[in-house]
Amino acid sequence: MKRLLIILAVMAVIIGCAEQHPPQFGQVWKKINKPEEARVILAKVNTHYLTESGKAEYGLLKTIVAYKTHRKLENDSLISASISYYNRYGDDWLRSRAYLYRGIVRMYRFGNIIDAVKDFKVAEYISEKNDDEELKSQVYQLLAHVNYYFRNQPSILKYSHKLLDSSIELNDSTMMVKSLLMCATAHADMDQLDSAFTYIMKGVEMEKHANMSMLSDIYSLVSELYAEKGEAIKAEEYLQEWKQLDGTHATHTTWYLIPAYIRKAQGEYEKAIQLAKMGLEDSDQRTRRKCLVLLSELYELTGNQEQASETRMMIGEYDDMKYTIQAMQMVDWQQKFDEIQHSKDFYGRMTWMQRLIIALIAMVALGIVIGMWWHRRKVRKLSFRLDEDTRRISELRTNIEQLEKSGAENGQEMERMKKELENRMERISGTLLIGTQMFSQLQQRQCIAEVTAKEQQCLVDYFAQLRPKRWQEWERKYNGLSTAQYIFLIMQDDLHFDDEAIATILDVKRVSVRSMRARIKKSER
């Protein structure tokens, strides 16, 4: 009973010291898309008893909820403290979301777009590393949107395509339509009209999954693309669809751009110029720039070169105004960030491959060592058995002679010893026979590269019987030679073969012959 109480006390101490995860946090995450409900639950958390990990998660959740409920945020210090903790102690899921929402707060609450992009890029890297599709979808939308400020069309297109891939992976039809619209818009802004048309028509095919806002943008872009291609009837058709859908904004100046394209296609240049000028009042940067480009083309067509030149200068000034040095630096920073991360990933993979190669080499080396050990063990076993047979034969002969001289009547014992003597003699004679055959092969300079370890040992044992003095000389001179090295000495010192003959018999290169001679030299006592 006393032991049980001690165990329970220890368990209580361990549980008490362990980091506790308040159950309210899980409930808040589940209600995060209903921020008012999440705020009520989060308010019930007693922050006095939170561990460092709990405080980090609390700071993250409080910032997210405050942002989603449109409450005032003085700064981003709370969520920055959470990021600092997660950078030290891991937990990529929470760390990635902390970077995501700090970027959102910095961009939409404090207008700090540069630092927001840096946070989004870190969140992107973590999401791709962990294959977090939900997070990838959010990050790609934000990065496509934020690059719009810098008019970084290649990056907008890249993240639009990434968003499309992610939405397909998530099987999110609404997000697919949105990403198709984004891809089409990006291609259109890069004057890749055929690609833009392909993507937007795929969006039209999936229009039943689009909300009213997306549907309005789809019809607008389809009408604009048809107008730019000179297909006035189709452009007019989708323009009417758009007006019916967005009839509450009948004076929307974006509508002037598409009719201007239509009038241009119909050859009514003066009316097109009037409509394009009215489109310049649009608050949308993209529409204003397109109106300027259209005006310069219309002035060219009407022969008004001076106005065309002035309009082109306005386009250049507009580009200079929007595409600032800071924006260019931000574009370069994003590219460098991607390059650095790709380099880290590449070197990480290379390091992993190097470790794998080293492990394989170590395994091969271990296999060779084990093989050599096993070979030597078999050779020693054969040699020991031969020595044992020789010793036992000598003992048996002595015992048999003593029994015969004494005349003792012990027929069974005599028969047993004679049978054992016969078996051991037969085994030795077999060994010597094999050794004789092997020695004959050497004399005839036949290749012995394929012979077994047993046959090699038989050759060495036979030579020990054949040349006992030379064998004893080698045993005194050398220490711990292998069977192969003894065979080398037989060919070199007894048969007097040159290096070329030895290399041919062993089926090795002459370099290996010199190498073996050097190793034997090192074995001298």
Automatic annotation (TrEMBL):
The chain crosses the membrane at residues 352-374. This is MalT-like TPR region domain-containing protein. Residues 386-431 form a coiled coil. InterPro entries: TPR-like_helical_dom_sf. It comes from Xylanibacter ruminicola (Prevotella ruminicola). It comes from the Bacteria. Keywords: Coiled coil, Membrane, Transmembrane, Transmembrane helix. The keyword Coiled coil applies.
